[in-house]
Design brief:
Layout: H1 2-30, H2 47-59, H3 93-96, E1 127-134, E2 137-144, H4 159-171, H5 176-185, H6 192-218, E3 222-230, E4 244-251, E5 258-264, H7 269-275, E6 282-284, H8 292-297, E7 301-303, H9 306-319, H10 329-346, H11 352-377, H12 386-396, H13 398-401, H14 415-426
Parallel strand pairs: 3-6, 6-7
Antiparallel strand pairs: 1-2, 3-4, 4-5
Length: about 425
Amino acid sequence: MEQSDAALIQQKNYIKVLEEYLQLAKAQKFGASSEKLPFQVDLFDEAELEEALSELEAQLPDEELVAPRRKQKRNRGFSEDLQRKRIELLLSDEERAKAERTFFSKVKEELEYIPAQLNVLEYWQEKAVFNIQDGKERKEQIIAAQRPVHPLGKCFASTTLLAYIIIAKYADGLPLYRLEGILKRYHGEISRTNMARWIVGLTTVLQPLINLLREHQNSGRHIHADETRIQVLKEDGKRAQSDKWMWVTCGGPPNQPSVLFEYDPTRSGAVAERLLDGFNGILQVDGYSGYAKVCREQNIQRIGCWDHARRKFVEAEKAASSKKGKTSKASIALSKIRKLYRIEKEIQGLDEAEKGHIRKELSLPILNKLREWLESNHIKVMKGSLTRKAMEYTLNQWECLIGYCDHGYLNISNAKAENAIRPFAVG
């Protein structure tokens, strides 16, 4: 009888978990994609946070600790970096006749687009002929002007065209077959096969530069890293449908940041070791275990990403069955996490020392309370549920998640890396 009851309870719990996943799938398909919390979830009065920030301002020596909020001006003009053409709208001779004076006033601005064009660069090499006496004979000697060095040798694409192809493919996400069509409209007959061959050739030419950028980035104190799946159609020993990976690292010395991408067919920790060779600062990543070995062997401090942890609670909240008058534990956790982000918003623009001080004074107490709440409540939540998984993930990653409070130059999330790699994820 007891075994039957236990089996029945287990079956009911399994059904609840399946219902959660079904609810989440519906929310992801038909609901809003934003992770912003609805107004009803704002459970805690944030007046206390405002008061704490005000008190902390008074304690710090810098009188301009928190800069006054400025109303954002709506930018109706265009960038000052753009060239400008003056177009004068003139009166006719009859209209200006007998006028005491005339003047101009600007009445309108338009943004003009000048379509790209392809030109053929003809290199004409000047040559000089010399008659040289060689013993009893006279010989002609020809000297030619030096030809420009091309990165790919005998290639009919100029360096500007090669640069455009790289930017269009990797920065703008244009497949080569689309580039082929675009260039054809400009009367350029360039096959995608040629473009692919040029790109492959340039990887070898540019590798020393990439190596220097990697060394420079790894000399910094803080690196964001992330990886995402990418489809590669022809890979030796791999099916087209199998997972391949694009890795990204963002960082470098202060005021000299760089973003570097590297493709690898695997998500092995060996890739992380290769990319972070020589780095011994602070690495900010999600909970992926592939970074554990390199952090341990190179004495790298690892910190986590609150966006990643928060996202799990957002999914749990979307999947939770709503009971009137009762707030889900996922919603409670999100309200506590929201306070951390509110502090980060308030301290934007402050220097590193001020940020670090405020985090220790305000963020750490909130984090300590959140941990206590998670430890006492996660065992009350059904195993296998999205809420339980979110709570356990946060507790397991806790030491990494609170690491951003150690220094003012760190970030609460790994958004820099995620934003950099998003074009590969969304196409």
